[in-house]
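User: Predict the complex with 2-keto-3-deoxygluconate.
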Amino acid sequence: MKITAADVIVTSPSRNFVTLKITTDEGITGLGDATLNGRELAVATYLKEHLAPLLLNRDPHNIEDTWQFLYRSSYWRRGPVTMAAIAAVDMALWDIKGKVAGLPVYQLLGGASRTGLRTYGHASGRDLPELFDSIREHLEEGYKSIRIQTSVPGIKSLYGVAAQAQSSGERYDYEPAGRGDLPTEEDWDTRAYLRHVPTVFEAVRNEFGPEIPLLHDGHHRMTPIQAAKLGKSLEPYDLYWLEDCTPAENQDALRLVRQHTTTPLAIGEVFNTVYDFQTLIREQLIDYVRAASTHFGGISPLKKVMDYAALYQIRSGFHGPTDVSPVGLAAQSHVGLAIHNFGIQEYMEHSEATNSVFEQSLNFADGYLHPGDKPGLGVELNEEAAARFEYQRAYLPYNRLADGTVHDW
Ligand code: KDG
Ligand code: MG
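Assistant: Here is the predicted structure with 2-keto-3-deoxygluconate placed in the model:
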């Protein structure tokens, strides 16, 4: 079998997505997700200009060889643009292999280790009553585990509560990348945040009891000692995890955090290769691997990093916001179903417009996600529908402190 075409489809049903479609001489096609939120066209160009010509006439069955060839032959390694492009190729080839075999991808990865993937959803609110409503809504929808984000008194905006939701009062359950020519500026004050967050978790535990697994995302905003302080102050509320407590580039920071708190730590949504996780896994500085198949080079390296993490009892918590497309979500759901050390899957439901473009066998019921049993990844792209949603430039917001200093967002 030979690859005869590698097409890149950019579409924007509610938000931008970049999808690679690989076609073979036998007419079988495979899809891969190459979406990099806010920098989508960089990956689309990388794929069109640099990888597509290398794929023509290759045997689609040689997934590992193709991955190594694309990774090593560029000389320039790693980085989100390169690894999202390689990820799309890797996913598309697994999709093709599954279709040829007549099996869903998780069967090719060793078969199911569980009946479904436990998920967590995002509850948020400007104040406690709004947050409680959001938690109740998620529980009614079947979610068994919930991420909690709220506005902080004195700060006009907070990650997890989008500007549009703040002004309209609507439920916020989609990503904050804003369409427009320039990014939105938000404000931030870590001391106010550190004072406020433990009071929120205390209130949530008082209202909803001790059983629900609760999560929180610090979104890279704290210094190591601030993160240690937050981890300690959240210990009475028994978090499932504290995510991205410090900027991900400085992995040594986690040593300090770890020495001070038993709150479980999750990190890695901006990581691109196993090398980013190497020290964190070997020294057992984290409890959950937050990589997404899309930004981590695809299914092949995600399975490998999880096998490495298994040696240290570290589990998965794959990144699953809506900027991971239904193709990327399916890819990591197949991995999650197959590995023994699955932890939890982040799940923000895609919009109706997104689902009209990506037809999926993936299903969500009673808080559990399953990639379905269609051969391959179980996602097909409706190209006619995709063509109706033209790309629109979009940016994630950024933060400034009260004195005007740029801060991590
Ligand atoms: O593109 C950025 C988003 O993926 C990120 O803000 C979402 O932190 C996030 C999460 O945990 O889902
Ligand atoms: Mg996060």
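The first strand starts at residue 3 and ends at 11.
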